[in-house]
């Protein structure tokens, strides 16, 4: 509130219109991965809400829907790996976006220094641990501390724009 002016009541925003308008902001796509505690199996989800937060300390953030069945597995794993996906990795994105099943079937990966799945072909990886979680509407904002990172490939990023996937032209 500026100069004591009363805040205007929030207008009712239609969810479809909200999605359509914000979909005009192009974002990259990341796969957030970890090894499932107790099973040793890789687990992962995709997000297009990823950003750097702070240089000192090094922090990143991403958003996860409350309905995610994968996030509880990742949260309990210790180390996470944020894989920045490249344009040819649309199939990786699609596999990790589904519910249930063996999401990693057919996805080649190695271990990050802390043991999280580092997906082959990713442009870069960022290994981190959960620092904070903030409830925000139908999502949780996860702030994570970076422990290690590296760029791997020079290629175009996988982009999400207007409800679909694409590449730089």
UniProtKB/TrEMBL annotation:
Signal peptide (residue range): none
Domain Flavin reductase like: 22-167
Keywords of the record: Oxidoreductase
Key word Ligase present: no
Annotated family: Belongs to the non-flavoprotein flavin reductase family.
Protein name per UniProt: Flavin reductase (DIM6/NTAB) family NADH-FMN oxidoreductase RutF
Species in which this protein is naturally found: Actinomadura algeriensis
